[in-house]
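Reply to dn_fold:

You asked what the input looked like. This is it:
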Amino acid sequence: MSIGLYYPYVHFRNMAWIKAAALYMPQLVRVVPAGFTLADPRDVRVLHDGLGFVDNFDPADAVEAASQHMLALVKAHGDDLRRSFGIHRAQDLRAAGGVNAEPSPPGTAPQVRSLHQASRFGERPLAGLHPGEMVAHLREALQDCGLAVPAVRNSVRRRSGPEWLGMDPALAWVYKCALTAEVAHRTAFVPLTDQVAAHTAADLWDTERMAAALLGETEILMEAPDLTSRIGILSIEYVLPARLASVPAEKIVELRTKYELEFLAYSDAVEQTAKTLQENVGHIASRQAMEMHLREAVHRDFETEVNTLRKAMYGLGLQSITTAVSTKFEMPTSVALASAASASVAGSMMGTLTGAAGTAAVAAFGIVTGARRQTAQALAANPASFLLRVERGLTPTTLWKRVNGALRRNLGAGV
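and this is what came back:
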């Protein structure tokens, strides 16, 4: 499966999203220019340290091309851009001291971390771009055109640092998309985001597309979604708990590490489903129809397989409990007393059971162990088994835990 490229921000905004991504994607990189100060929460650091899942990528090789697109945009449409996105005197951040808005898609309300600046100026708040995200010539051109001012980025723990560039959130967002597209073009990384409104950053963002997005001169052509990533998202969502954000990242690391081979088999299955879908319906233009084909493929190749595995595991669990209870309490006395040695082994294995009851428990223990071997074999043979591992590992009250609890109660031992 391809490596993901997170955009349009550096810091992740949705912890449930990144945890889900870590369960279907091998790795996720983000654009981090040289000199950028990171302030990651603990869960992100755990995913980085435990799996190497989160990694940083310096966009230096792509900055020149993205900057040239924006320079051409300013040259061709400077007056129109200034009327819609120009910086007013009251917004000069050299006096205000910082930027507080996030880059936001054109036509949407910007996300503001602090209302202080917006209420103070009564103007649209400004977003900031790191100096390492663009060439010096573009920074100068944007300031000369009245589209940007020097700024101090104070949203990351109010730390001061290098001089950023403050601009309208829509202008910053479009440039972020252009930079992401250039990085993706050079790396074959797949752009991914946790921002619903930002699903158009993949594909080429040249001058014409920037102008269309900001000024509405022409229709923006929507690129086809990445099928592999979309299938991964849909399939993993089927088994995730409702409150994934509260699940410790260590559990994600444990699942990926302990069941690495099953994770790889699942990833291969996702790739194969995407390849088949691309061959069969990849040519269709309707995004609504494509989404219908996607969901049908996920249901066929993953949801039904998980349901089949659930039923199989349920059957094995119930048979194990039934047989264990029957063996423990209903084994004929003549068989139970057949060997004093068996009673001795039973006592050592079960701790609290001796004599005939211990012998019966040993027999039951063997039956349960055999069932567990059958379970492992069934899971190993199915590419969708990793999804069931995820469901068991992250949901506190799964059937498997209830089965194990019943076994402990009936056998008097942990299984």
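The beta strands are 4-6, 28-31, 54-57, 127-129, 148-151, 164-167, 190-192.
Hope that clears it up.
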